[in-house]
Amino acid sequence: MDIVVFQERGSGELKVKGVHSYGDGMTITRTVSIDEFLPDFIEDPEEFIAADFSADLVLNYLKHPDLVDYLITLCEKKGITVVSPGKKGGGFTPFTCCGLGRNKKLGLYGEKFGVPEYKVVLQGDRIKEIEVIRGAPCGATWDALQEYIGCLVEDVLTRLPRQVQYFCSADPSGFDPVSGKSPVHFAGYFHIAALKKAIEEAR
């Protein structure tokens, strides 16, 4: 699966690293980085985003609304699926990267990345093994588990959300006006819900 990434001032670096580390069968063929100062209004977004790209999937980590809108429209014209976490518009727009649901249009990316899924093996009240089936492209799902093998289930359920939030690359200032929660809070919620489900299935 060929993926093209668009980012602004390094906004997608951790996700690119995560795809390289955990995205078997996926190749980031191109990363378009926009690092210069941008005006409040961009009249000609094509000056920043060339249309000469092709991919199975585009990951949109741009921040400027004019560039975001232009890229989504361009991908729609090209028939390329686009994921734009935290944005509005066409394509897939989860509030957080780890809030992406499953969809056939997402191909291998959607099978590996999105709403977390674990497989847990218990030994009494302790966690013997944890396998990540699906997780956040920033790598937080995998990184947060390193110290929990052999720990009490109760302790892991308490500590995991904080650990995920520590590794999470989402903007903590991007509060949702309805819930009052930031993307980092949602990341913790998604992960703890996934772990609870895996523990229930293991029992």
Could you explain how this protein is built, in words?
This protein has 203 residues and is of the alpha/beta class. The chain folds into 2 domains: 2-93, Rossmann fold; 117-202, no CATH class. Helices cover 34% and strands 19% of the residues. The strands form 2 sheets. It has a 4-stranded parallel beta sheet, with helices on both faces. Strands 5-6 form a two-stranded antiparallel sheet. α5 packs antiparallel against α6 (183-202). The model has no long low-confidence stretch (mean pLDDT 90).
Please tell me the overall pLDDT: 90
Task: Give the C-alpha Rg.
Answer: 18 Å
Note the run of SSEs as H and E.
EHEEHEHEEHHH
**Tally of DSSP β-strands:** 6
Largest sheet: 4 strands, parallel
Termini Cα gap: 36 Å
CATH topology of the largest domain: Rossmann fold
Count up the domains: 2
Anisotropy-based shape: elongated
Secondary-structure arrangement, i.e. CATH architecture of the largest domain = 3-Layer(aba) Sandwich
Q: What's the total helix number?
A: 6
- Side-by-side strand order of the widest sheet: 2-1-3-4
Category from helices, strands and their pairing? alpha/beta
Relative strand content: 15-25%
Work out the helicity level.
25-40%
Q: List unreliable stretches of 5+ residues.
A: none
CATH structural class of the largest domain: Alpha Beta
* CATH superfamily descriptor of the largest domain: Response regulator
